[in-house]
Amino acid sequence: MRTDNNDRPLVSCILPVYNGERWLQAAIESVLGQTYPHLELIVINDGSTDRSGSIAADLAARDSRVVVIDQDNTGIVGALNAGLRVARGSYIARMDADDICLPERFARQVEALEAHPELAIIGTRSITVGAEGEIDSQVEAGQHESIPLFVKSSNVHNFPPSLLQVLHPTIMVRADLMKTIGGYGGRYPHVEDYDLYMRLSAYGPIAELQRELLLYRVHGDNVSIRRLREQEENAARCDIENVNAFRRKAGKPALRISDKTVLGWVEFRCFRREFPLGISKVGTLNSALSYTIQGAFRTSLNITALILMRCGLYYMKSFRIAATHLRKFRIQPKPLKS
Q1: Which of 86, 109, 112, 237 sits 20 to 30 Å CA-CA off 315?
Q2: How many other C-beta atoms can be found within 10 angstroms of the C-beta atom of residue 324?
Q3: CATH second-level architecture of 11-220?
């Protein structure tokens, strides 16, 4: 286990940035302000054309724990893997250039990984904040309180796969496992985190600390907003290809799934991301149902049944939500005058 001079596990936090000058300094300072000081922060300046590189360099000059890598733009996967190549820690933490770590995040994650050596990934809950205004990261630490841990074992040999999807910038992972799987893969653009979880889940469960330890900033430039459908198309492909890879290793036959069923799964995944519900969003669910039925004859019965069942459950939920709204806006008759 790689440690620092205090004989404690070293955490390597990897923070890629591309033109993130607006929030970068606050993000870096939130990592340096952790109650767990045994860390290095690796900032990968991925070809930024704004002041991101100089902001990172200035902070590195003030704190020797900051390492800056300046490189031509390679995209998120290339930047993350560049950070992994120089990371020295026993644990790898993720951070984005527009988020804020709350002070006890790393301490709590290290504590959980040491107490549960079977875990592959530990994430945390988060608080969503907007683009504007200041963020108060001085939340009461509560360091003497235990934090509940939600653990979920993965099922990646069957379709649809089942795994706990924690928020990517909250994760901490064992460095030896990241080395074993070869770091981040570039086959599925914009869902590199989901692919990572799929591959790491073969080595242990994914867990989430049930406390908000990251402030997650939502703004118009979030990839999850700009590229929702592309993300879900790539996630569906990631589902099928990774499940088949796990099945081959286990000596099981490949999935029998038609192109139409794949389209149905994409539509279903998009629908789950489109809450709150509306008429156009129920249309996405209708498309999921239609494609799945069209592809049923060339798809294993259990796969078709599972997707149809999930569609049915969301139809019921949609109707309940619609009924609630109708009752809320129903005009009550005026009482008769006596």
Answers
A1: 237
A2: 9
A3: Alpha-Beta Complex (3.90)
Cα–chain center distance at 205: 15
Q: Please list the residues that pair with 16 across neighbouring strands.
A: 44
Extract the tokens encoding 186. 């570039």
Task: Summarize pLDDT for 103-153 with one digit per residue, the tens.
Answer: 999 999 999 999 999 999 999 999 988 876 555 555 555 556 789 999 988
Q: Where are the domains of the chain?
A: 11-220, 225-325
Under 8 Å CB-to-CB from 42, ≥6 apart: which residues? 12, 13, 14, 15, 67, 69, 83, 86, 87
pTM here?
Answer: 0.86
CA distances 33 to 27, 41, 87, 107, 252, Å, are 10, 11, 19, 12, 49
CB 43 within 8 A of CB 28: yes
